[in-house]
Amino acid sequence: MPNHRTPTDKAEVSGSASRNPGRFKDRSRPSGTRPLGDPYARMTDEQKACWEEIQANCPWLHSAHRPLVRMASMWMAKLDENQEFGVNATNALSSLLSKLVATPSDESKVNHAGDGDEDPSDEFFTTH
């Protein structure tokens, strides 16, 4: 099965758009998107905390992702509350996180700026 098409915003965050500019040159962004925004008012405090965690870890998400983030937040809160969390719930949460490009394998593809790594060029510009 072929890989899913990488969204333009994710490609920019991960650096793949700069590594392969020809792959993304004819793509257009969805119009009218807004930031992900605040959690839904009817969500519990635990679900809202999970929403904030997803939002902080996935800066490429926007308003079109709101329903998926809501569902993922609900499942994450249920897991955090130590409620019965079977195989089906685990698969549902895993699928949602994958669709949000928030799984560990996808996270490794995203370049999080300011993560504390040293600049590789420092060795050339540092005086001893």
Report on the structure:
The chain is an all-alpha fold and 128 residues long. The protein has a domain at 36-108. The chain contains 8 helices and no strands. Helix 5 runs antiparallel to helix 6. The protein is globular, with a radius of gyration of 18 Å.
What's this model, at a glance?
By secondary structure, the protein is an all-alpha fold.
Give me the secondary-structure category. Answer: mainly alpha
Kindly report the oligomeric state of this protein. single chain
Terminal Cα span: 53 Å
Sheet of most strands: none
Overall radius of gyration: 18 Å
Which percent bin holds the helix content? Answer: 40-55%
Give the integer mean of the pLDDT values.
Answer: 81
**β-sheet strand percentage:** under 5%
> What is the general shape?
globular
* Regions with little confidence, pLDDT below 50 for 5+ residues: none
Please trace the helix and strand order, writing H or E for each element.
Answer: HHHHHHHH
Number of continuous helical runs? 8
> Total strand count, please?
0
